[in-house]
UniProtKB/TrEMBL annotation:
GO terms for molecular function: metal ion binding; serine-type endopeptidase activity; tripeptidyl-peptidase activity. One of its GO terms (cellular component) is extracellular region. SUPFAM superfamilies: Protease propeptides/inhibitors (SSF54897), Subtilisin-like (SSF52743). Residues 233-610 form the Peptidase S53 domain. It is found in: Secreted, Extracellular space. This is tripeptidyl-peptidase II. Its EC number is 3.4.14.10. Secreted tripeptidyl-peptidase which degrades proteins at acidic pHs and is involved in virulence. Its cofactor is Ca(2+). It comes from the Eukaryota. Binds 1 Ca(2+) ion per subunit. It comes from Ceraceosorus guamensis.
Amino acid sequence: MRFTTFTALAIVLASMAVAAPAPSAMRVKESVTMPSGWVRRGPVAAGTEIPLSIALKQRAFADLESEILAVSDPKSPRYGKFLSREQVSSYLTPSAESAAAVRRWLEEHSVKEDLSRRSFAGDWVRATVPVERASAMLGGAEFAEFLNERTGEVVVRALEYSVPESVFDHVDLVGPTTYFGKPLAHRAPSRIAEWLPVGYKPHADETVVHADNRLAVNVAAAVPPPACTTTNQTTLTCIRQLYGTIDYKVQKPNSQFIGISGFLEEYPNDKDFNQFLSTERPDALAANYKYRLTQIDGGGNNQSKPGVEANLDVQTVAAISFNIPSTYYSNGGRPPFNPDQATPTNTNEPYTTEFEYLLSQQTIPSVVSTSYGDDEQTVPRDYAVRVCGEIAGLAARGVSMVFSSGDNGVGSDGNCVSNDGKKTRKFLPAFPASCPYSITVGGTEAYAPEVAVSSKIGGFFAGGGFSEYFARPAYQDNAVKGYLKTLGKKHAGLFNPNGRAYPDIAAQASRYLIVVGGRYVRVGGTSASGPTIASIIALLNDARAAVGRPNLGWINPLLYYGQPEQVLTDITSGSSAGCDTDGFPAAKGWDPVTGFGTPNFKKLLAAATA
Ligand SMILES: *[C@@H]1O[C@H](CO)[C@@H](O)[C@H](O)[C@H]1NC(C)=O
Ligand SMILES: *[C@@H]1O[C@H](CO)[C@@H](O)[C@H](O)[C@H]1NC(C)=O
């Protein structure tokens, strides 16, 4: 006993003799195995600048979540009383203690924060530091160049990093470090890279064109027919007839605007837009209707490079929601990466750039349509949680955050294993589709009856499934438990029955006839159904504005606690085939293929303005 006591005393004395406080011990924050498809290419050139994003713990995120329900649940007395920018920020701002701990950590390493890139709430702090210093800050993290063998994309990442004990509990994550998501090419954050799903077989009357080495487009045989008479091509006029918006006249065009997310150097083309309007919305062309374009974080606007996704999004939104203004957000984030030059590589972190920008603005869209997504497991959990938190923040402000559900059913065939090194066979849910605050949109095809999109017409199966990161929110309990009961033991073990289930709603996702590069082309994907739903929500907002009602915002409580069968057409046939299985079957009521179904605008309108 004595001996021990003496020893302890000796240690105390020894440490008192040191002038500076002992450096805090390091603790592993995250450790991942290399996702399949990537190889370590080699070391990072000395002096390479690494842009670090540090996510500080938010002060009161759980309280923000109750606020979202309070303003989005129609039964709540505060329904529609959305939060201001400052109110949302007050929940997200880190505590003074967290801010100080991170400040000290940066100072210890002589790292200067890039104040211009701090988020509005101060919950993201950024700095660009040479790789040697980044490694020292992160407990000797071994940064290296990693190559995606399929796309040729090169990123600088580390498979493990640590932070000092003194900041461990104050920081959610340091990015991009372990983020191997596939935002650049491969499949995400958009479905563009594999616009047509893996193994897509063109129909007899189709030609597949590869543009930009990444895109595949169906070239339409003819100019648009007037309506939905065949399944050969889905004109926007047909969509407007099918869902019943065609006679609706916008009443308060300046009371809101629609936001459209753009990543991956996807730019909408002005000439294509006008050509499209000439056949689908001549009234909009006559009114000189345009979309606006906002460039975020170095996002471009190259009119010589029309993007299929970008054109699909702006054209769909314009055709359905004219003359509600729309804004295309062109996000930067993919400068050519030259690993030999000592200039900053991009963080390659999609979503947060745009969502942080929106959270920092006083005036924001009423609806944001995002047709991009990753396999959830390729997005580190901590990062997904933060992005979902930003979606939540925007939901609290009354924005309907609409996301496509994905184009590979429950996961792309031949690819359905866990990336934790164990290669467990499982379905692959998509993110941000899986965020509980997303309004997630599945896909349909055909007209009488409308069925879940499939290989028959659309050439793909819409994404659907259950999150492995996000628990099932209470609002889904009844709907999802009912479905699971019907499902029985089918696919047991391949998915997380307790996870946030998606999609919530659906729309046509096949053979949209749009204009790209001066030609009419047919494009399919939940990238098409997403903007369709976003536009219809905006039309409902318009009708509500005309009778003095607030925007619909995050509609999930309305859907799940309400009577969706009275305002949506339940889609009961088809499935979300994938992972070499027949996937989840569509069913009566909610299902993880088409959600509650597709819009019946006349009925929605009556309900939204009742
Ligand atoms: C529509 O598709 C069917 C079957 O693929 C084909 O026989 C028909 O010629 C097409 N019609 C038009 C107008 O392209
Ligand atoms: C715009 O896109 C065209 C076609 O891809 C390309 O040749 C040109 O270099 C691009 N311009 C800029 C400024 O990036």
